[in-house]
Amino acid sequence: MESRVPSESASPGGAATSGPRPADREGLLQQSREFLDFFWDIAKPEQETRLEATEKLLAYLRARPQGPERKYALKRLITGLGVGRETARPCYSLALAQLLQSFEDIPLCSVLQQIQEKHDLQKVKKAMMRPALFANLFGVLALFQSGRLVKDSEALLKSVKLLQNLAQHHNHLQEQPQKALVDILSEVPAATLQAILPKVLKADLNSVLGSPEHLQLFLLAQQKVPEKLKELIGPVNLFSDENIPRLVNVLKTAAASVKKERKLPAVALDLLRLSLQEGKFPRFWKEVVEQGLLKKQFWPASYLCFRLLGAALPLLSEEQLPLVMQGDLIRHFGEHMVTAKLPKQFKFAPEMNEYVGAFLEGCRDDPERQLAVVVAFTRITNQGLPVLPTFWRVVRSLSPRALKGYVAWLQTTFLQPDLDSLVDFSTSNQKKAQDASLHGPERAVFRLRKWVILRLVSTVDALHAEKEDDLIEEVARFCFFHSFFETKKPTSQIPETEQQFSFPLESRTREVVSSAFFSLLQTVSTQFRLAPARTPDGQPWTHRLVQFADLLLNHSRNVTPLTPFTTQQRQAWDRMLQTLKELEACSAEAKAKASAFQHLLFLVGIYLFKSPADSCELLADIQTCIQKSLGEKPRRTRSKAATPQEPPWVEVLVEILLALLAQPSHLMRQVARTVFSHVCVHLTPRALQLILDVLNPEKSADEDNVVVTDDSEKQSESGEDKSSDSEDDRPSASEDDSDDEDSNEEDRDGDVDQGFREQLMAVLQAGKALGAVDGEDDGDEELGDEAMMALDENLASLFAEQKLRIQARRDEKNKLRKEKVLRRDFQIRVLDLIEVLVTKQPENPLVLELLEPLLDVIRRSMRTSSSKQEQDLLHKTARIFTHHLCRSRHYCHDVGRGVGALYAQVERLVQQAGRQVDASLSLYYFNAALYLLRVLKGNSTAATVCKPQKKEKAGPKPGGPKASGGLDLSLVTPIFSSALTSFLTKRNSPLTVPMFLSLFSRHPVLCKSLLPVVIQHVTGQARPRHQAQACVLLQKALPTRELRLCFEDPEWEQLVSQILVKVTENLRTLGEAQSKSEQQQELSSLGLLNTLLRTVHQEKLTVDLTGVLGVLQSQQQRLLPGGDSASCSRLCNLYWQAMKALGVQRPKSEKKEAREVPKVMQSPLSTKRKKKGFLPETKKRKKQTLEGAALVEEAKPTTSGGDQPPSTGKRRRRKRKAQGSTQANGTPATKRPAPEAMTPSAPAKTPKLQEKQQPSQVNGARPASPAAPAGRKQPQKDLPEKGVSGKSPQSALPRKKARLSLASRSPTLLQSGAKRKKASLKKARKP
């Protein structure tokens, strides 16, 4: 918020304090406070607030064009230009510009004069010089931003003169006045500039080259009025030999001035345009940019050169582009991209991407220039590796013609790399390396080819969305051919055979091309799940690749596969093509399944070139499965084999899909998921067991039919390449080596076994090295040289063997660890098939067989979830189990003859839930049991029985077999009864209250059967904690409507009475809790009692409440002292809530006495200073005055006692307030008895009467207490001994009278309260 300067605070109108006061000044202030708040909002830091305040101010002034507000606003804004806060000055300047733009009748000269008078530089004090300077500067900028300054020549000349005067104060303003002058003169017409130029520009070249602002002014005049400039200064050659060093210094200064803004100075861009205009661009670029600025070793100057390069791209022709794209500057830019890797280090690459993207968007009609720039940036390499990323997004802006040319250039570079045409460089760390292999051409060619092939594939990623099928096919054919084939003899029918290599293609390069090709296949197949990617002729896109591969195989004279096909493999290929033709001729019903099988055949057929032996067997099995699947009826869910020897086709296909999932290919993972979604309807128990065996570690470890593979070799090769690129990581690698050495030493020490020690002792004894130990007579003998040499050889061979054994053990450990990692990764991928089955076929009975295997995976993963991979497996399994299985809307409705097995499974799951150690794990087992109950309840055999119930009217219905659906309560009740008993008796049970509440809410009939178990544990020998849990279960279950419908009215009343008796027995020890569990038991008992009383009142049950009331009133004395803890206060609240439901109201005196206990220990002064509450600002002073006067009046009669402390008046006010309330009720004021005087036979009030009495309490009257004096009338009658109604213990007639008397008494209470307030105000005002 802007600080109020003295002039503003004393004079809101903005006028000076001296002189005559304006006639409308007071009227202006009284007219609108909103108008004055505009100026405060204008200076706020939030931009939205400033703009909104400016718009509102202008709208306010437009509505009053002739009023005094406009004059005040102008003065106020001019004053705000010189405020002390720097952030507020531009705000006032912008508002002033908007004001001048909206009201053009305000003369600019007068505004400029007011600015100079208000902020006079000659009269201002030295301490206020800086704000005054900025006020004048922002005032001129406001005139310029209004758009009227260039039209007013007089104001323009005065503004220019003022800016020239401000330029002399360089310490405060620096180059800001010169920059403002250049901005203003760039907008004026040529004639005006011609007249002003002699006044602003000196006829001296030294002055022109002295600062960037003067040089920019010179370039502006050179562009607009060259004749006048030539007349003023004469002919000037800025790019002469003597002027170039001065230009370099000026540009360096300009680069430093925009260091924080990170933008290109305008003077540099004007120099670039001038050099292009005069035809001296090569000289400017070579001598000024590369030989001048670039040699300064000043990063702001380097960034200026980079920005100049990006800005020059649209201005250069195709012949001029090689000059800037092949020099020292572009090499320096590449080195910056390689070395700028730290997080906090400035990276220029995003800014250069914007320059190049803008250039490509601007010249889409010139593909030659587009191609030249993209190729030039691609040629910037670091030891053969281009510095640009392979996913350079600006390539998407290329025109189709330029993109086709770029793809052709990439292919040519891959085939025949031209290392001489590259702008190659090495970093300082690379130059220090003495390894000759890092500088050879073979390494540079490999790095270049690897980048080019990845660049081609990433180009297809962008093309796939644009449907450039021809270009996609060209890239795919190129990658496929050079992955698996080589040319024997060129032919025109296969264009790829005519491509020659300048450097031979290495095997590791072919592996890179092969992996890139399958990545391309994945890109093309991403949309297969929605719709297969198809070509314009209607065929699947991958069908073209299969046709191309068949063409290559048929031209064996011209091309040959790298791994030649055997006769069996070639027959498998031919059978695959025949099967594809049969799939194309399928009916429309089986089209989706045929399409999935087509996609699978395509990919496995292409994998035949990568691994012929494995893919050949897969192709044969897939073709057999396809033939059998298309011949079967789709409705069969459990197919059997035709012969005992031959397994069903689904099982074979599942094994094939598992084999595909074992490969580290995301594409194969997608294909397996898609195919399985079409065949899961035919799944058999044996096929499902094949999937579940993978998740079982005991069975999956013994099976060898599925081999999990990885890309460790490829990763090691790529790791070697990455290690050579990052030299900064070598120190950390040395640290890792030292750590490895330490661990090796520990392993060596730990691996020394007793056998090795015995062998060592034998060798030493054989060499007589231990002769001194065996006998003292041989101690003086020494071994000869030959014996020592033989002993050394034996020891060396022994330690060498031991080292090999240690290394073998270590390798075995690493192998086992890698196998475990691969097995976990394989299990995560196999979970995709389970997720597909649960999602696509939730009503399949086989889904029920997934429960226990998934629970086993969750249990094992929760035990050993240390690694990230284990956590991923756990999270995915838990997500499938919870969201896709247990919470699914659809489930199996026809379990057939497996009902008995399901009941046994429910019992097994519930028992396992009770045996777990962790409650979170037990929750999964319990939810599985609830899911099976849901399946049993919704079984189709019981659906016909439940249909007639819908026609009956809603109301209480008896519980029975109809209400339980397909559940057999005789089987289910003992299962959960034992679990509930264990939960309520066992000390540490993993079962929790929410589990059983979920069971009760889903199956209320089962809840009815389990309620006796819960009621039994409310009291008795159970632990207090278990009693509390039983009370919570009853408290949450009883209010549910579903449970109420399972009981007849007499049964329900009997149940409530039974629970009430149990709770009453618990409440006899209320207030005697010593431990935390006992306190929780008391709270739960009172909460259950409140629930019961609420149920009795709502349903109007005939239940005897006298016993409960008597027990509660007998325990009242124990709750009176209370405590400071939250549990004690909560216990009291629950107690009085129950008493209120029984008709006994909580006395207000108890609350006040509880509050006054700490006040007794305080001094009277402290109670006087204690803040009573929040008051509005406008009433604080008035209220304090009234309270002080009241205190004085009330303190006068109480000062007679000599030893008494000064009274605060609170007790007297409280007494008077009590007297007023009793008098208002029509009874004389008497002393209120203590709360202990409440008799146990006090009548219980109804809840409705208490609700009616609450407004009177708020209005200031205190209702009758249960411990009222004998003189006060008691309208209630005593409670009868038997047959108390559940609604209220009192009769209806006295309750009605009480309501009438209370309603008629309310207005008088309001009036009496208002009269007492007026009387107190009058007393306070008396002197």
Automatic annotation (TrEMBL):
<dbReference type="GO" id="GO:0003714">
    <property type="term" value="F:transcription corepressor activity"/>
</dbReference>
<dbReference type="GO" id="GO:0070888">
    <property type="term" value="F:E-box binding"/>
</dbReference>
<dbReference type="GO" id="GO:0005737">
    <property type="term" value="C:cytoplasm"/>
</dbReference>
<feature type="region of interest" description="Disordered">
    <location>
        <begin position="1"/>
        <end position="26"/>
    </location>
</feature>
<feature type="region of interest" description="Disordered">
    <location>
        <begin position="1144"/>
        <end position="1327"/>
    </location>
</feature>
<dbReference type="GO" id="GO:2000210">
    <property type="term" value="P:positive regulation of anoikis"/>
</dbReference>
<feature type="compositionally biased region" description="Low complexity">
    <location>
        <begin position="1260"/>
        <end position="1272"/>
    </location>
</feature>
<comment type="similarity">
    <text>Belongs to the MYBBP1A family.</text>
</comment>
<dbReference type="GO" id="GO:0045945">
    <property type="term" value="P:positive regulation of transcription by RNA polymerase III"/>
</dbReference>
<dbReference type="InterPro" id="IPR007015">
    <property type="entry name" value="DNA_pol_V/MYBBP1A"/>
</dbReference>
<dbReference type="GO" id="GO:0003723">
    <property type="term" value="F:RNA binding"/>
</dbReference>
<feature type="compositionally biased region" description="Polar residues">
    <location>
        <begin position="1197"/>
        <end position="1207"/>
    </location>
</feature>
<feature type="compositionally biased region" description="Polar residues">
    <location>
        <begin position="1"/>
        <end position="10"/>
    </location>
</feature>
<dbReference type="GO" id="GO:0022904">
    <property type="term" value="P:respiratory electron transport chain"/>
</dbReference>
<dbReference type="GO" id="GO:0042149">
    <property type="term" value="P:cellular response to glucose starvation"/>
</dbReference>
<dbReference type="GO" id="GO:0072332">
    <property type="term" value="P:intrinsic apoptotic signaling pathway by p53 class mediator"/>
</dbReference>
<protein>
    <submittedName>
        <fullName>Myb-binding protein 1A</fullName>
    </submittedName>
</protein>
<feature type="compositionally biased region" description="Basic residues">
    <location>
        <begin position="1167"/>
        <end position="1183"/>
    </location>
</feature>
<feature type="compositionally biased region" description="Basic and acidic residues">
    <location>
        <begin position="711"/>
        <end position="733"/>
    </location>
</feature>
<dbReference type="GO" id="GO:1903450">
    <property type="term" value="P:regulation of G1 to G0 transition"/>
</dbReference>
<dbReference type="InterPro" id="IPR016024">
    <property type="entry name" value="ARM-type_fold"/>
</dbReference>
<feature type="compositionally biased region" description="Basic residues">
    <location>
        <begin position="1314"/>
        <end position="1327"/>
    </location>
</feature>
<feature type="compositionally biased region" description="Acidic residues">
    <location>
        <begin position="734"/>
        <end position="752"/>
    </location>
</feature>
<feature type="compositionally biased region" description="Polar residues">
    <location>
        <begin position="1219"/>
        <end position="1228"/>
    </location>
</feature>
<dbReference type="GO" id="GO:0110016">
    <property type="term" value="C:B-WICH complex"/>
</dbReference>
<feature type="compositionally biased region" description="Basic residues">
    <location>
        <begin position="1209"/>
        <end position="1218"/>
    </location>
</feature>
<dbReference type="GO" id="GO:0032922">
    <property type="term" value="P:circadian regulation of gene expression"/>
</dbReference>
<feature type="region of interest" description="Disordered">
    <location>
        <begin position="702"/>
        <end position="752"/>
    </location>
</feature>
<keyword id="KW-0539">Nucleus</keyword>
<feature type="compositionally biased region" description="Basic and acidic residues">
    <location>
        <begin position="1147"/>
        <end position="1158"/>
    </location>
</feature>
<dbReference type="GO" id="GO:0042564">
    <property type="term" value="C:NLS-dependent protein nuclear import complex"/>
</dbReference>
<dbReference type="Pfam" id="PF04931">
    <property type="entry name" value="DNA_pol_phi"/>
</dbReference>
